[in-house]
Amino acid sequence: MNKNPEKKAPFLSLRWILLTAYAVAGIIPLLLLASTMLHSVQGYFVEERKKELLSQANVISGQLTTSNFLLHEENRSDMEEVILETSQSEDYRVLVLDSSCVVVYDTGYEDVGKTYLLPEVVQALEDKDTAKKQEDGTVYAAASVMGLSNQRSGVVLIVDGMKDVQDIVGDIGQEAYLLLACIVAVLFIIMVVVSKVFTEPVKNLIGIIKEMSEGHFERRAKVEQKMHTELVDLALACNQMADQLEKVESSRQQFVSNVSHELKTPLSSVKVLSESILLMEDVPKEMYVEFLHDINSEVDRMTAIINDLLTLVKLDQKEIPLNFQETDMNQLLAGIIKRLQPLADAKGVTLETEYLKEITADADEMKLSLAISNLVDNAIKYTPESGTVKITLDSDHQHAFITVADTGIGIPEDEVNRIFERFYRVDKTRDRETGGTGLGLSITHATIMMHKGSIKVNSKEEEGTTILVRIPLKQSVAQS
User: How does strand 139-146 pair with strand 152-160?
Assistant: First the structure.
């Protein structure tokens, strides 16, 4: 019961991350845009109403100036009716103030006799007719009234609560937010679909990777190559990883089989020899000695195999540090030839050397010497009597080149790329005849790779084999 939530949690997390990202990228800007547009619309209506109210205030101001409203009280009644009708028809409040900012007339009949020291009134008395929106949303529009000698005798103040504007903006806002809600709903559906498009392939890939982790290396991700995307790259990389894992698993199984076989053979010999001694009676001392020598030889063979295996494991895990130092390559090869000359003489094989330059390279002398010795030793073993093994040393400005060429039995073309595999044999009977553990070339290959070098093989059956080793003259990065 607890497994399903654990499996689904990553997909839900990724999907919600995508949905959140889409919301931030799409919905929030829409909300900001809607809010900005509503604010702009409201601002536009307010500015238009301010202009309209200021115009109305100037009209009323002109009428008051003409009728001497503030100077002759007997003329006020007719003018008050006109102002009241205008106020009622336009649904705003009109106040007339004298030059002392005292309310002379109010269509609301509330503030007559009160003093209004409003900034708009003061500015109008200073010949600065103005209209402003107040914090509560009300608009004040003030225009001066001219008296005798062009003196400002008072102010017309129009007060409008802007209810109609608020209603209009409210209606627009309601429709806008309704439209926005529809857009958000559509966007959400699109986001769910898009997130599913992105997360489903990832979900499938994770499922395949989990199966691989359980040992099903034959599983592969489906690759839709209709269009090149990062998900296609991810699927291809997953399949490449599966190919490598399958190859490694196959190599591991083959390696275990080879190790078992290599160790089983000497163990079987030891068992047969020891049982023979135990079952025979009155065995001469000479036969005991011969059998014990054979048993000792098989034990030595098993020890050599195990030691080579341990060496390879340590090389793979880089547990064997390389001690790089300036190494005289000419002297190194001369030492190898000196050690292997007796083996060549015993087989009647001629060893030839050609040093084209005096060369010094950064190398671990002991390990590189062992690697090259394996190549020369192999060349001698698989070269028939009267054959030749030639070792050549050369270099360019970056690399040293060591060539080991023999006139031996050669290697089939389809087998050349496999000779560095552990325990791999071109002819399964050869190593039984020539000795060795079948791991020498693998150790050589690993050592050359640790020197940041390369090794190439060219061979033809019955004509011979040439192996070219290349290592840098200078190691750019020190290895531990």
Answer: antiparallel
Q: Provide the token pair at 10.
A: 């990553």
Tell me the pLDDT tens digit for each residue of 124-171. Answer: 888 788 888 888 778 889 998 887 667 788 888 988 877 666 667 667
Q: What gap in Å lies between CA 465 and CA 410, rounded to an integer? A: 5
Residues forming beta bridges with residue 361, ordered by sequence position: 327
How many angstroms separate the Cα of 282 from the Cα of each of 35, 271, 279, 288, 318? 112, 20, 10, 10, 54
Tokens representing 365 are 């002398």
Q: Tens digit of pLDDT for each residue in 224-283?
A: 666 556 777 777 787 888 777 777 777 667 666 666 666 676 777 778 778 777 777 777
Give backbone dihedrals phi and psi of 399, rounded to 5 degrees, phi first.
-130, 155
Cβ pair 374, 443 in contact under 8 A: yes
Nearest alpha-carbon partner for 363 in 396, 393, 323, 420: 323
Instruction: List the one residue out of 363, 286, 387 whose CA is nearest residue 379.
Output: 387
Q: Could you say which DSSP state residue 394 is in?
A: E
The tens digit of pLDDT for each residue in 188-218 reads: 777 777 767 777 777 777 788 888 777 777 7
